[in-house]
Amino acid sequence: MAPLFWFTREVLVMVRGMIAELQLGMIEGRGTAIGNGVGVGLNRLRHSNAKSKVIILLTDGDSNAGNVSPDQAASFAKTMGVKIYAILMGRSGDARVQHGTDIFGRPLWDVGEFPVNPELLRGMASRTGGEFFLVSDRRALEQSFHTILDRLEKSELEDLGRVYGELFPAFVTPAVVLLGLELLLGALVFRRWP
User: 125-146 pLDDT, tens per residue?
Assistant: First the structure.
């Protein structure tokens, strides 16, 4: 069995799919629990036997909620040998926020204040051996993911030898031929005369 390599393109497609499924209002509340998010990631990586372990932390604000502080989470990550790559999407200040819709279904917008803390994220990343990125648009976000994925080690995966595919095309042609034969024979040979 030949080894397969996990290329960054597949990972990027997976991340794009996960980001495409995100919607505003998926999470209740207005807090950002960065420490809890990193803690959940560390819990998932706890039993992994991968050579290098990383967490990509994508956030749009300052940590203002949760029961695990970002400093504690960074300490746990450093102890476990997990690098944190922090991406801050956005900037501090007023931002447009949708707060409902009018009677015609059009969105209603308001202005909200969203503080950010790039120093916190920069410190978490440098403490664990990761890197900090500040992005403001989709292209910069994709570029930061490419940069992170290019720096990661490639892992070899064993080919399990399983091939999955659709089997119906093998049955469609004989079924159509038999249906046509039945119609032809029914119209000519086995036709009932009243």
Answer: 888 888 888 887 788 888 888 8
Separation CA 172–CA 154 (nearest Å): 42
Angstrom distances, CA of residue 12 to CA of 17, 44, 142 = 9, 20, 9
Q: Does residue 102 contact residue 74 with C-beta atoms inside 8 Å? A: no
Tokens 């992994």 sit on residue: 48
Q: Is the pLDDT of residue 92 over 70?
A: no
CA neighbours closer than 13 Å in the CB half-sphere of residue 20: 6
Helix H or strand E segment including 11: helix 8-20
Beta pairing, strands 3-5 & 156-158? antiparallel
Six-digit token string for 181: 């034969």
Instruction: Tell me which amino acid residue 54 is.
Output: V
